[in-house]
Amino acid sequence: MKNILKIVSILVLTVLFVNCQDDEANFGDIVAPNDLTITAEIVGVDATNPNGDGSGLVVLKATANNAISYDFDFGDGLSEVVPSGEVTHRFSLVGLNTYNVVVNAIGSGGNKTSGSITIDVFSSFDDLDAKQLLTGGAGSSKTWYWAAEEIGHLGVGPANGSIGDGFWYPQWYAAQPFEKAGSAESECIYTDQLIFSLDANNQLSYQLDNNGQTYFNGAYESVVGGSAGYDFCYDYDTSGTSLVSLAPTSVDWSVVPDPAFMSRGTVMNFSDGNFMGYYVGTSSYEIIELTESIMRVRCIDLNNTDLAWYHTFTTQEPSQGLETIYTNLVWSDEFDTDGAPNPANWTYDLGASGWGNQEVQNYTNNLENAEVANGMLKITAKAAGSGYTSARLKSEGLYEFTYGRVEVRAKLPTGGGTWPAIWMLGADYQTNTWPACGEIDIMEHVGNNQNTIYGTLHYPEAFGGNADGSETTVDTASTEFHNYTVEWTPDVIKIVVDDMVYHTFANTAATPFNSDFFLILNIAMGGTFGGNIDPAFTESSMEIDYVRVYQ
pTM of the prediction? Predict the structure, then answer.
């Protein structure tokens, strides 16, 4: 916040006293305060600014004999009780306004002596430091992006509540890193560019470049005639420049227990209905934190004023490219020996049990279902009479590990009802029953939804139909080879296609993803995810060039 040159004029104004009882009256130890004096020091008063420098700040002082505390009613809807009799208050109503400040000097037994003072205060709130940080300074512009790699870059919590309830934090929902990526319904949010500019007169302006689409809260889809019924990316024109005015906050952040979320006391108001990327009907955002490279803001949902939305932005353009920490190759199968898969690396699941998902294939260890040829592993699902055969290879008992980067280069099968998967299962699954053991689906694909790739994690809090995952589009999933990868660390799990991260999960000690897992490669048929099988299906293969593990 700017430093204020405090050229102060002390106004000792006429005070009207209204005593609750005679000044000298007393009863035992109960004594009413007397000789109440009130003064006001308006910050920044000088010959050219008789009503202050525009900050709206006034230092109010009250003294009285026998007073224990002082109750200030500032005349602007706010009040405060202080023991010292001195308080600095910001009068935030813009312009020159008259306030009648009432002070109650409180004595023993609750006896009060009241007085008032009338002051004229000019407020033109400004935050030059915020303008500098937002833009880079007069004559400059700065572009901000969603801090997509951060947990809670988009979040929601209650707008109001008692201190300690977390009303100042997105306690109800906090987006995982890149949570909105990989889906046409939401990924447009990560293309937003928020451009702040400052001219030579310190006028702040703003442009939102949404690259043609805005991520709308489902409650506001009528603005664009939408009908999705949930949050969705809609075509929306955000071209043009709006002015940004700054105002002081109405929230008393001094009582918030966590200093990491202390507001700087500044609210940004955008003209022309402009907004900060995610549409929730508001053009007013309170700055919680602002540095050279990080901005956190809070806004109130206009359709539901009990909701506060939290956004985090950064000056670093988001990149979903994988930056691995694992570069040492520790295990691999290059499938360079023709015949059955290497028994030192792979064993089989066998049978036709439905496998918990109502699948209809019979898993075998036959070469026609799993064979290495010409430098490729081919897992083939085949129609066989009234049923289907396939293979499910696993490294259980042969290679199990904790943390690392797994990379599998594969070309996927086609056909309605096919369900290929490249995945990992917690090695303790026999004693720690799924989903407690954890499951990491590096790649799943269904022939009934060609070119959509799914990456998913299953654990006790999110499994089955409510698992934690995302999807992305790979247009040549079944005609070309692609790299399907997981980066698995103690802190984060990233699911990746061709080095592009499309799902990120924050790993903690409380999840099952901190112990040994083994690898599984298979094609299922039908079932709860694979869906209806094409009656014309005969056979199709998942071809795998290699499986590599780095640590």
Answer: 0.55
